[in-house]
Amino acid sequence: MAATEMVLSRSSSGGGGGSRWCPTPEQVMLLEGMYTGGLKTPTATQIQQITARLSLYGKIQGKNVFYWFQNHKARDRQKLRKKLMTIYQHQRLYPPYNSPYHDPLPLQVGVVEDASSCKNRVNKWKVDPPVDQTCNFKCDCSLMTVMMIESTTPYCTRVPPKTLQLFPITTTTASTLKDDLSKP
Amino acid sequence: MAATEMVLSRSSSGGGGGSRWCPTPEQVMLLEGMYTGGLKTPTATQIQQITARLSLYGKIQGKNVFYWFQNHKARDRQKLRKKLMTIYQHQRLYPPYNSPYHDPLPLQVGVVEDASSCKNRVNKWKVDPPVDQTCNFKCDCSLMTVMMIESTTPYCTRVPPKTLQLFPITTTTASTLKDDLSKP
DNA sequence: GCAAATTAATGATTTATTCAAG
DNA sequence: CTTGAATAAATCATTAATTTGC
Q1: Dihedral angle at the C-alpha atoms of A22, A27, A32, A38, nearest 10 degrees?
Q2: Distance from CA of A157 to the nearest CA of B (A)
Q3: At A99, is the secondary structure helix, strand, or coil?
Q4: Distance CA A138, CA A158 (A)
Q5: Would you call B110 exposed, middle or buried from its count of C-beta atoms within 10 A (0-12, 13-18, 19+)?
Q6: Which residue does chain B place closest to A141, by CA atoms?
């Protein structure tokens, strides 16, 4: 980095108040809980609910949740991939078949109908996760839908309703409200 | 997705498909015009305007415009890439330098500040395109912002503004409300 | 102990790839 | 086969850890 200066140029970066979401420990904890609990790709509806719940612990948007799962899954996958790669390399083995470590995650997928017809890759994990909540919505596809849905709630912390600012490009000096994160 | 439903009862009339956007010839013409005119990656603001304009010729959403440019650019690029690849292969040449045909498109980028400091990749094409409309918004980054903006207008054919509903999550056993937001 | 400098994590975008409708 | 839609991989950029010299 330039290191020449970086002082208090606060939030000049682009469009939205704080430059990026900084999850509180509680939020991270809950998210990781859901992830290890089996939720890898939440549907739009789930993202909504998760966002609502996490907003109790700090300001957050649906897209943050969406990104979190995307990144977490991707990095999990790449971690596994590297591990497998070194293993294969170590044993002078080639990956099992076609694209072996291209999808190593033992994610719990949805119902894979019959597996007899392999014409399509079994990417059918679009049904909603193990928890049996009665959401019968077929195809709510992550990001788009999320964005469509969250519409009017720019960031949904439960702050007292101040004068709503569409695009807080203005300085908003300070941060302070940023986080009280004290690591456990 | 189960495909069990998708009633697609109506609206197939008049050139709008139910399941996916089917651009009218006028829309395609205009889009291609803009593309060859130099617009490769419209900002959110531009996407809005384009959508508004194209909605005169048929129903369309911001995401359609977004996807159209994404796909068009991607496929243009891959076409060029293939062409270059065969050329190189044909002449027993290796690509010029590091990743030669990784960015073959002579896209018109925004102002590249000084080019003297190459510390960062010059990916600064985030400023808004040639047309000098006075939008000073720094970083409105494509999809997210588009979605944020278009918010309450699920599909922006010129329908009269109804009362906005913000997505009832409650059980409401299936259906009924669903098609309200998927079909006109 | 403290900040500046460096490195590691990780949030956010962009690009490439894949799926499926027509 | 073409192409709209969706997802995953790669990349960028900023924040937190950490090292280091004082």
Answers
A1: -120
A2: 17
A3: coil
A4: 31
A5: middle
A6: B1
Cβ–Cβ under 8 Å, residues A155 and A64: no
Query: Which residue of B lies nearest to A146 if distances are taken between CA atoms?
Result: B147
A63: which chain B residues are within 8 Å (Cβ-Cβ)?
Answer: 144
Give the DSSP per-residue string, B64-77.
HHHHHHHHHHHHHH
Please provide the average confidence, as pLDDT, over all residues in chain A.
59
Asked if B155 and B51 touch (Cβ cutoff 8 Å), the reply is: no
In total, chain A counts a number of residues equal to: 184
Put simply, whether the predicted model's pTM sits higher than 0.85 gets the answer no
- Mean pLDDT over B126-146 rounds to 42
Residue type, A167: F
Contact yes or no for A22/A181 (Cβ under 8 A) = yes
Q: What's A11's DSSP letter?
A: T
Please tell me whether any atom of strand C lies within 7 Å of the Cβ of A75. yes
- The CA–CA distances, whole Å, from A2 to A9, A88, A133, B119, B162 equal 14, 41, 50, 9, 51
Tell me how far CA of residue B140 lies from CA of A15, A16, B4, B147, in angstroms.
7, 10, 38, 11
pLDDT class of B15 with cuts at 50, 70, 90: very low
Check whether B54 has a pLDDT greater than 70. yes
Which residues are within 8 A (CB) of B4 and not within 5 positions of it... i.e. 6 or more apart?
Answer: A138
The amino acid at residue B152 is: T
Do the beta carbons of residue A174 and residue A17 sit within 8 Å?
no
CB-based contact, A143 to chain B, within 8 Å: yes
How far lies B80's CA from each of A43, B71, B76, in Å?
Answer: 36, 14, 6
CB under 8 Å to B18, separation ≥6 — which residues? B6, B8, B11, B12, B182, B183
